[in-house]
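Internal tracking record. Fields below are filled automatically when a chain is submitted to the structure queue. Please do not edit lines marked as system-generated. If the sequence contains nonstandard residues, flag them in the REMARKS field before resubmitting.
Queue: standard
Priority: normal
Entity type: single polypeptide chain
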Amino acid sequence: AFLIESVLITFLLLMFGEIMPKIYSNQNARRMALRAATPMAVLNAIFSPLSKILVKSTAIVSQTKNHQHSDLSMEQLGEALSLTADTPEQDKDMLEGIIRFGNIAVEDIMCPRVDIVDIDIKASYKEVLATIVESGYSRIPVYSGTNDNIKGVLYSKDILPHIDDADNFRWQALIRPAYFVPTSKKIDDLLREFQENKVHLAVVVDEYGGTAGLVTMEDILEEIVGDISDEYDDEQPNYQKIDDHTYIFEGKTLLTDFFRWTDIDEQELEDITEEAETLAGLVLEIKGEIPKRGEKISYRHYTFEVINADKRRIKQLKVTF
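SYSTEM-GENERATED OUTPUT FOLLOWS
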């Protein structure tokens, strides 16, 4: 009996409470609109103050929640992540990369100017082919005069159809426009621009318009997933471990890699790493000038010995801690 009553009541409600009124109002739309206008205006006048109060209270609650969420800094997220002992090390490194991703600037990960492989726009076709083969790079910037005047980027795949052409082949016609970004650009914004513009390499320029370095899609992705190896990468990282407390590094080694490979807490050196981006830059911050070969620079319980250097830069260092 209860089931029959429920079905019957539901049927009557749907029929006379929804279906029939809709059919009638559709057939007599103007008449129904005129009849409903006055009651709707009265109800709107009565409940309008209450509606405004509810809308404002909802906005206040939303702002409060957003403010509470924004109080959690990237450093606090990183500290919380460090407490998750059960998380595999590789997964933890990836999560840490995601957390700090939005705070990393292009200048922190770029290939510096002194390490750029580029081609003079006046180079012969034979020289261009030799540079592509020796470097193994698929995209090489082309300059005119100095590498502060980048004219574009040469893609090795554009050269392939002309591999057997004569030495007088005008390879300059294959140069594509270069994509320029400032050193201060955040890499999350650059990644989005790379995807939108379908490019994989950008020329990084300083405040004076000079070339500061190069940054690639691979450089950005490595900040999340770690080192990405391809057929042209070295099998071994660019450092040598002597023992648990002694390492040999190239001067151009990024500080982010230095801390990761040695498991040194970045906070121990944070007072001298604000301006430095590489290990050589860190030593220059301590010394104040380019040290000589064989010179040892001490800071707290760290010793930096210059193994190889010239008048312009530090090339190799031994770090003991």
